[in-house]
Design goal:
There is one protein chain. The protein folds into two domains: about 5-135, Gcn5-related N-acetyltransferase (GNAT) (Aminopeptidase, 3-Layer(aba) Sandwich), CATH 3.40.630.30; about 145-315, Gcn5-related N-acetyltransferase (GNAT) (Aminopeptidase), CATH 3.40.630.30. The chain has nine helices and 14 strands. By secondary structure, it is α+β, with helices and mostly antiparallel strands. A ten-stranded mixed beta sheet has the order 4-5-7-14-8-13-12-11-10-9, with helices on both faces. The chain has a four-stranded antiparallel beta sheet with strand order 1-2-3-6, with helices on both faces. It starts with a strand and ends with a strand.
Length: about 325
């Protein structure tokens, strides 16, 4: 295989996005349709296509951040999107990428692929090819995901979670609805993030833009007490394998009603009915700790109540110069 590296331009948009949709590991975060929500000129994009005899073998969304080629920028997951590559092809791809980085004068590369649960066919050929060619791990985060497939998924939840869910289903004190009222959700998100001393990843305007660009990939669940929204989950339907719970928020003055248990039940039910294999409920790091790998133990214990399992979100690193 003789790979040619082509820098992306808008003429490739349809072919790029079609390739991601049909790929083994691509997600909505790899699509140009998603990346276009960023304001033009915000990032120095360096999206790459790897082509053999006019056929796309891989794509890599990236940006040139100084002397570092980084993937992703402005998204949760990046790195190579491919079909189910054999090892020789994976090695060729890594070598071609490394040669490109050297030729372009990049000092280093950072690549954060989606975890293995996002793959249609599980393969670590690219991971091993990267390791064999001198890439190391820059960092790991512990993420958590709920395996799906069993209609009686609540039976696998811990006792406390089951009890609160059964109460929600029995008493109807809370209602959970799929909604497009992002304006009602965003103040909950802001207040929740402020409690932890951080800001949301997205502005309200950006969320509305993403919903416009990818209407089938964003689903907002709102929890109501009477007619008041008190909690919500914003789901990103990333690919055919995984639905990602990007924001899972509540007003803490209503915590005693356990709205997160109600919305988690509805989210897992919804993802199961859509045929997804996993619900990714995000990373579980202590963002205030000096060591960025420090786990947030209370958050992990809470996620494990819903049969969530630890999944590594790792970043590969290599210095070329």
């Amino acid at each position: 295989m003789s790979l040619q590296v082509i820098q992306y331009n808008d003429e490739w948009k349809k072919r790029w996005d079609d390739f991601v949709l049909k790929s083994n590991n691509g997600t909505m975060f790899h699509r140009q349709q998603f990346l276009s929500y960023h304001e033009k000129g915000k990032f120095p994009w360096r999206h790459l296509l790897f082509v053999d005899k006019k056929e796309i073998v891989a794509v890599l969304p990236a940006a040139a951040m100084g002397q570092t080629l980084e993937s992703p920028i402005g998204a949760s997951y990046g790195s190579f999107v491919t079909g189910d590559l054999d090892f020789t092809s994976a090695l060729d791809l890594v070598d071609t990428f490394s040669d490109y980085c050297r030729e372009q004068g990049f000092e280093r590369a950072l690549l954060t692929p989606p975890p293995f649960i996002y793959q249609k066919t599980i393969s670590q050929n690219i991971d091993y090819a990267l390791a064999y060619r001198g890439f190391t791990y820059d960092k790991h985060y512990i993420s958590h995901a709920i395996p799906l497939g069993d209609e009686d998924f609540v039976a696998k939840f811990q006792n406390t979670a089951r009890r609160y869910i059964h109460k929600y289903l029995r008493e109807h004190t809370l209602t959970v609805e799929i909604s497009d009222d992002y304006g009602a959700f965003y103040p909950i998100l802001l207040k929740n993030k402020q409690r932890h001393g951080v800001k949301p990843t997205h502005t309200l305007e950006e969320l509305l833009q993403l919903k416009k660009l990818l209407p089938d990939h964003l689903t907002l669940f709102l929890v109501y007490k009477a007619n008041k929204p008190i909690a919500g989950s914003l789901m990103f339907d990333c690919n055919s394998q995984v639905a990602l719970c990007f924001y899972n928020m509540l007003l803490y003055e209503y915590e005693q009603f356990n709205p997160i248990h109600a919305v988690m039940y509805e989210v897992v039910k919804w993802a199961t009915e859509r045929g997804r294999k996993w619900v990714d409920i995000g990373v579980s790091q202590d963002t205030h700790a000096e060591n960025q790998m420090t786990p947030a133990m209370n958050l992990i214990r809470f996620k494990e109540k819903f049969n969530a399992h630890g999944i590594l979100r790792s970043t590969f690193y290599k210095r070329f110069i």
